[in-house]
Each structure stands twice: as C-alpha cells, then as structure tokens.
Amino acid sequence: MLYPDTVEAEILVHKPWFVATMFGVVFAIFLAFNLTSTGFGELMRPVIGEPSQSGLYGRFAIAFIIALLFIFNVVLIGFASLRIQIAIVWAELLLLFLAFFETFHLSLPFIWQKLPFLISQGVVTTLYVSAISIIIASLIAILGAVAKLSTNGFAYAIASFYTSFFRGLPLLMQVYLIYLGLPQLGFVVGAVPAGILALSLCYGAYMTEIFRSGIQSIDRGQWEASRSMGFGFSLTMRRIILPQALPVIIPPTGNQFISMLKDSSLVSVIGVWELMFLARTLGQKTFQHMEMLISASVIYWMLSICLELIQSRIERHYARSKVR
C-alpha cells in the first residue's frame, strides 16, 4: 500500500456527490435487467404485488431497493477501520459467489466423493509440474538476462531471438509443437516432461525480461565498485547485483508463478493428469461437469491465495530496509 496520508480529508464514500453518483449508476444497471422473476422479486412481493405482473413498477422498485441497500452498505463500511473494511468486503463478495454457485444446484455428495482424488492426484501433479517449471524458467531467465545485458553479439542475438520467439507463440501451440513435433525428429517425450519443457521455455522468455529489468535497476556504480575491488563477473552477480535486484524481481516473478499454476491446465490437452484434466474427466460419465469445474476453480483459487501470501511474506522480508 501507499504510505499513509498525513493530510486530513473526508472519506470518499461519505461525500454526497460520490454517494449520489454511485446510487444512480447502480440503479441504472439493475433497472436494465428484469429481476422480477428472481428470488429478489419474490421478496419484494409485499411491495410490488405479483412479480410477473408488476411490469415497469416492479423493475423500478427492485432497482431502487438494491441501489439503496448497496449505498447504505458502502457508507457504513466507510466508518470502519481499514482491516475491518477489507474483511467485510471479502466476506460479502464471498457470500455473493456462494449464492451464485447455489443457482447451479450442485450435487455436494458427488463433489465430496471425487474431491480426495482430485486433490491427491490433480493438485499434486499441478504443483509438481508448476514448481519444476518455475525453477527451470528462473535458471533460463538468469542466463537470458545476462546474455541480453552482455556486449557479446552472439549471446545477445541468441537471447533476443529466444525471447521474441517464445513470447510470440501461444503457450498451447508450444505444448503441441514439443509433444508432437519432437517425435518427428526422433526424440520421444512423455506428456509430463513435454508440459514442463513448454512451460519452462515460455515463462523463461517472459522472466528473462523481468530479470533483465531488475538487474538494470541497480546503479552502475555498484558494478564498477565491485569490479574495482577485484570481484569476478560471477561473484559480482551473486554477491552484489542479484541480492539488490531481488526486491524488484520477486513481485513479478511471483505473479508469473501464480500465472503458471493456472496455465499448467493447458498441459491437460496432452493427457497429463493434472487438476483441469481430472475436473473434465471425472464429471463426464454422469454429466456433472459443473460440480467438478467449480471444485477445480475453488482449488485453483485457494492455491493462488497461498502463493500470494508466500509472495507477500517474501516481499516484506526483502523490503525491511525500506520501512520507515
């Protein structure tokens, strides 16, 4: 977050113009939809009468009440402290998502029956593929960044061609090219190694630019001082440059890992038994696709939240010197 503002100012959600604007926007949005046939229309029956026959009056009344409740909720939350505001908004959004999922009439017994296998096989494979891929991608990124910052024409040309090619192709295309193309050259690659290789090469290209920008963010004087003390290239990178560049590199690298965790679902097209593959196949026999897809979505979300917390902790560790 930004540094706390020391200037006293009125809270935005308590300003009359903001309240009136938000009320008008929310009212217009819900007036555009006919909600008289929903559960909210039934709740409004004492006011609008028979929902199906209430017409424009029913739509107007429902939109007005929803806008009023929304504004009342926002204004009340504005009186709370920052942490309480975050907790309340998260809780309310979570309840809205649960209410949305409830409309699918999901079979909870079926979900609980398939969930252990979905976790033990799908989640483990997803984390295994993603973890190995991010490690290989990081190593590729370090080499690529050093090559793009070097004065060696061959190294720069190879690194720039690599980043241009693998950032220019869709990841799914790369998965197919590696899994189906390499056997044409005599190299038979399994589904899991092919998926790991595709993810590593694709994300290594993106992370090369992350590492390059992180290294370039360090003042050139650091490099020159290190070299003047007799430090070699590798020692300068390991002890001087990279430790200072890590606070710049870690946030986007963490985002790349979270993105890779979700993009690992693309390797399901070549038969890897990861989370997405099992979510699609476990519900096919009984046509209960939504149960498995929503379960997989929640699992992906939980994994992403865990990674976000780990990333946040690492960022705080490296940002200790900047705390005022």
Automatic annotation (TrEMBL):
Membrane topology: Multi-pass membrane protein
SUPFAM superfamilies xrefs: MetI-like (SSF161098)
Matching InterPro entries: AA_ABC_transptr_permease_3TM, ArtM/GltK/GlnP/TcyL/YhdX-like, MetI-like, MetI-like_sf
Pfam families: BPD_transp_1
Domain ABC transmembrane type-1, first and last residues per copy: 123-311
PROSITE patterns: ABC_TM1
Keyword list, A-Z: Amino-acid transport, Cell membrane, Membrane, Transmembrane, Transmembrane helix, Transport
Localisation per UniProt entry: Cell inner membrane; Cell membrane
TM regions (residue ranges): 17-36, 56-79, 86-107, 127-147, 154-179, 185-206, 265-283, 289-310
Taxonomic superkingdom: Bacteria
Membership in a protein family: Belongs to the binding-protein-dependent transport system permease family. HisMQ subfamily.
Name listed for the protein in its UniProt record: Amino acid ABC transporter permease
